[in-house]
Amino acid sequence: MSDETFDWRDFLGRWQEEWVPGEDDEQDDESPHAGPARPGAGEAAIAAAERRLGQRLPPSYREFLATSDGWRVEQTAAIYELGGAADIDWFHDPHGMTPLYEEGLGDDPREEEVLLAGMWRRALRLETESDMSSALLDPGDRDQDGEWALYVYKGWSGEYPDRYPSFRAYMEAMYRAFHGDRAAMPGFVNATTRAQDAHVEEARLLALRGRHEEALPLLEDALSFGRPHSATLLNQLRHLTAPQTARDYGFLVADPSCRPEILPLQAVEPARGERGPDGDDHWLGMMAARGVPRETAEAVLGAVRDGTHRYAPPGPWGRAVAEAREVARWGATDAAWRVLRAALPLWEAPGPSLIAPVGLLADPFLGSLITPERGREILATPRAGEQGPAPDPVPDLDPPGLAWLTESDPYRQGDDGYRCVWAEGIDPARLPDLIGEEGSTLSAPVDQRWGRWRRASVAEAQEHAEPWEDRAPVAVGRTAGGWAFAFDRDPHHLGERFVSPAPAASASGRAVVVWHEPGRPSPGDRPPTFHLSVAEQGEELYAFTVRGTEIQRSGAIPEALDPVRLFLPDATERDNELRALAALHTELGLSLPRFALTRGCLSTFTTRSWTRAPREGESYAYIRFVRHRS
Fold first, then answer.
1. What is the pLDDT of residue 608?
2. Which of 95, 354, 545, 600 shows the smallest number of beta carbons within 10 Å?
3. Based on the number of CB atoms within 10 Å of its own CB, is 588 exposed (0-12), middle (13-18) or buried (19 or more)?
4. CA-to-CA distance for 46 and 150, rounded, in angstroms?
């Protein structure tokens, strides 16, 4: 970093002019130097210090001393006062930090770790007053311009020192901290605050025009000065580009015009966590401190937690949101996104502090389909009446057909087996009546990425079931071809007493059942299993089950689905599975929405048992594992 273009006199003079004591600072009206500045040290004084130290000082620190021989800003940071040329001296590691840091280097330390371990004995101490802290310039950690890194070590914190690449970088950070500490003070207005506030407004308009990448650095800079509204605007940009990361919107929840959009967002994290009543009380208390009535916060938290919250903005944008939610409800996330994309220019800001429809992220059906790429498309779309070029559309995420079921996915559970029921020409909401256990209804939307819902559903379903029963918690939706489906991502073993639910699902038309179980090596040497059954008007038309090289079949199987053609003895298990899935897509038009089933939200229900009861003379055995807490 070159210091040639940096004007220390202008920088420090501006800081001196803007200086006001902090709210907790003691004011001394008799101080000979009101503010932080000191008269500059002459070249002779600086040269004398360098002879005493045996080192030429780094450029930015030399220029600083020539402009102000020391500096004081009460309570800006752990360092209260920087000494002048006559005060600085070598640190000499008085607290024995070097051995502690050398012990932690390990066998293959990084360069920065080695530099830090050696810093304590060679560093130059700058502070003359501090809160058990040190400002240390390290001559062993220097850049191509001769600048030394500056470390601030807070002795009371137990943390690693903060590193700045140069003395100038440290002072610029402290100047920002000075502004941040005083930003909320009435009357703290100067040329810097006015310039930064102008940047915030400029960034707001840029963001609404789809130029979010230009708005981002303006807001980041304004935030470093603690300017009002900068954090709120910046968090919206960051939230949409990292939708799964929680953001705190502070007192924006107190604004009645923004509360319907922001309060549900703030409730997402506590709603997803496994907190007890005390955890809820902490969040509710925090919202109350921000001006949200407790009963309002409780209602929103409950709706977000149980999946009944709905993002419902007014106007044309709100109508598009409702349409997209109904589409996404059954798994058509690409189609839902296209509805939202077309309506984005119609979005209107509920208040000046909102620059994007972040309320989408709290909606159980719509929030999950906002990927980082789609979030960036939202931000790149001009909205709220502003003009600008439309961004290139993000590609659809769902592949056609069923081949994706063979792919490894970090969100898939178990051993990548699956089973599914498709029913043609019916509303998916009818499936619980056709194949659900007694009294089964569709649940609120469930996040498919986590397996906790399935484990809980299995435990609940089996609690009052016979040991031989195999009731399946299934996710429900509609395919692009119009079939209703019920999908189980982690089925039990397909046994000899399996009874296909296809006839029950086919009361109004055709129904198809597919069950795939991967092969397992020893122990057990279970061969791969693939089952297909097709029924219509309550009667099974045809079926087959392939276990390894053994094939069981019934009915008039179409030639395109003949298992002898699909499952070749010399082919790999995956190739056979791919061939079967491709035939089902081509012959019957079957598909499944990958995004909704692996990363989205869908309603669920529990099916009737896929296993029949033992007949007279048959026996069965089962093992139950019970975990005891010691």
1. 94
2. 95
3. buried
4. 19
Coil vs helix vs strand at 113:
helix
Q: Which residues contact 51 (CB under 8 A, 6 or more apart)?
A: none
By mean pLDDT, which of 145-159, 296-310, 454-468, 510-524 is the weakest? 454-468
Full DSSP string of 3-61: -TT--HHHHHHHHHHH----TTPPP-TT-SS-SS--PPPPHHHHHHHHHHHTSPPPHHH
Confidence (pLDDT) at 76: 56
What mean pLDDT comes out for the span 19-36?
Answer: 62
What is the model's pLDDT at position 63? Answer: 97
Answer whether residue 29 shows pLDDT above 60.
no
The predicted pLDDT at position 237 comes to 97
Closest CA to 542 of 560, 556, 530: 556
Mean of per-residue pLDDT scores for the chain: 90
Which amino acid is it at 343?
A: A
Contact 290, 251 (CB under 8 A): yes
DSSP annotation string for 513-538 = EEEEE--B-SSS-BPPEEEEEEEETT
CA-nearest of 506, 499, 512, 503 to 472 is: 499
Query: What is the spatial distance between Cα 386 and Cα 371, in angstroms, rounded to a whole number?
Result: 24
DSSP assignments along 144-156, one per residue? TTSPEEEEEEETT
Give the Cα separation of 29 and 18 in Å (integer).
Answer: 17
Of 375, 336, 360, 352, nearest in space to 264 by CA: 360
CA angle 324-327-329, nearest 5°? Answer: 105
Q: Which amino acid is at 367?
A: G
How far, in Å, CA of 426 to CA of 507, rounded?
10
Give the start-end residues of each E strand in 57-143.
71-72, 79-82, 89-90, 124-125, 127-130, 133-142
- Look at 14-28, 221-235, 542-556 and tell me which has the smallest mean pLDDT: 14-28
- Ramachandran angles phi, psi of 601, nearest 5°: -120, 130
Dihedral sign, CA of 452, 455, 457, 463? negative
Peptide bond preceding 523 in cis form (omega within 30 of 0): yes
**Both tokens assigned to 438:** 């007694």
d(CA 307, CA 446): 8
- If pLDDT is split at 50, 70 and 90, which confidence band does 233 have? very high
Task: Please tell me the number of Cα atoms within 13 Å of 452 on its side-chain side.
Answer: 6
Claim: this prediction has a pTM higher than 0.85: yes
| Tokens linked to 74 | 């009460």
Whole-angstrom Cα distance, residue 166 to residue 147?
6
